[in-house]
């Protein structure tokens, strides 16, 4: 079994609801945690390994969280006493502010790198990255790419989505096979005022690009092909982790099939499963069967560019 290695943070989110009468509570979160859930929903039992720095005080809790979602916790490695914790304050208008409880330096110290993957390169079927364009991080990725034949997916950080970063982003794209981003990030990256302007620029990139458009579905751009994919039906209870789970699911299916359109349908179904509840869902064979069935019902449309 070849594994999908998800390289990003698993954190503890201290959630403060906008309703002052509601009691704050702690949930497991982070881009890595949700991407791993998406990959697990799209893959097989234990085929996703989450690679992230954690705290010794939280390791057992976080490993159990992974196991309950059929994610291999072998990639969790000790960095400090406590894992990153994010304080999330919600406001009545739906906006929120996230603050690292122990500071950015502590958060950054728990960032996983390819050298932390606990399996040999030939055991890895795909690698998920969530990061900005920072040079030291990508020098590590550059060294790893020489050893891995598996596809790399970069879910780009919003911090890198500005025209000044575009030259560096183009350089980083030489090291990956898939770029995942949302509408706001695409517009920001190219300084575009309209989506069609951003699409024209994305079409020139030398990678498969998946563009997440929320309730409007998503687009996959693969060379000269542009395909629009709809959304899976269902209620949106909490959008947290929707984009991360989409990207993780896409990578798992794309690594298995090589078909980006089919992978986007699975990704959309997996994301819909995640946002249909508060917190990340448990994962088992029934959940996977539901995702596969939902994916088949999602419409696709080939579009001219």
TrEMBL record:
<keyword id="KW-0808">Transferase</keyword>
<dbReference type="GO" id="GO:0016301">
    <property type="term" value="F:kinase activity"/>
</dbReference>
<dbReference type="Pfam" id="PF00294">
    <property type="entry name" value="PfkB"/>
</dbReference>
<feature type="domain" description="Carbohydrate kinase PfkB">
    <location>
        <begin position="162"/>
        <end position="280"/>
    </location>
</feature>
<dbReference type="InterPro" id="IPR029056">
    <property type="entry name" value="Ribokinase-like"/>
</dbReference>
<dbReference type="InterPro" id="IPR011611">
    <property type="entry name" value="PfkB_dom"/>
</dbReference>
<protein>
    <submittedName>
        <fullName>Carbohydrate kinase family protein</fullName>
        <ecNumber>2.7.1.-</ecNumber>
    </submittedName>
</protein>
<keyword id="KW-0418">Kinase</keyword>
């Amino acid at each position: 079994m070849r594994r999908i290695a998800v390289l990003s943070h698993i954190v503890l989110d201290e959630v403060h609801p906008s309703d002052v009468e509601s009691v704050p509570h702690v949930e497991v979160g982070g881009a890595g945690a949700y991407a791993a859930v998406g990959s697990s929903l799209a893959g097989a039992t234990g085929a996703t390994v989450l690679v992230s720095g954690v705290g010794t005080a939280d390791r057992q809790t976080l490993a159990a969280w992974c196991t309950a979602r059929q994610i291999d916790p072998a990639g969790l490695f000790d960095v400090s006493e406590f894992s990153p914790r994010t304080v999330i304050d919600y406001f009545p208008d739906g906006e929120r502010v996230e603050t690292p409880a122990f500071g950015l330096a502590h958060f950054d110290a728990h960032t996983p790198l390819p050298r932390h993957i606990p399996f040999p390169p030939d055991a890895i079927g795909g690698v998920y990255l969530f990061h900005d364009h920072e040079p030291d991080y990508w020098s590590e990725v550059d060294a790893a790419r020489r050893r891995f034949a598996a596809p790399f997916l970069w879910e780009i950080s919003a911090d890198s989505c500005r025209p000044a970063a575009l030259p560096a982003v183009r350089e980083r794209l030489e090291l990956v096979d898939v770029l995942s981003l949302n509408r706001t990030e695409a517009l920001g990256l190219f300084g575009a005022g309209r989506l069609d302007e951003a699409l024209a620029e994305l079409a020139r990139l030398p990678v498969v690009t998946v563009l997440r458009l929320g309730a409007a579905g998503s687009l996959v751009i693969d060379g000269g092909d542009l395909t629009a994919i709809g959304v899976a039906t269902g209620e949106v209870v909490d959008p947290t982790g929707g984009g991360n789970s989409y990207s993780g699911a896409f990578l798992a299916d794309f690594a298995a099939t090589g078909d980006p359109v089919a992978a986007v349908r699975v990704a959309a179904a997996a994301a819909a499963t995640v946002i249909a509840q508060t917190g990340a869902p448990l994962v088992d064979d029934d959940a996977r069967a539901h995702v596969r069935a939902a994916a088949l019902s999602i419409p696709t449309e080939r579009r001219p560019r």
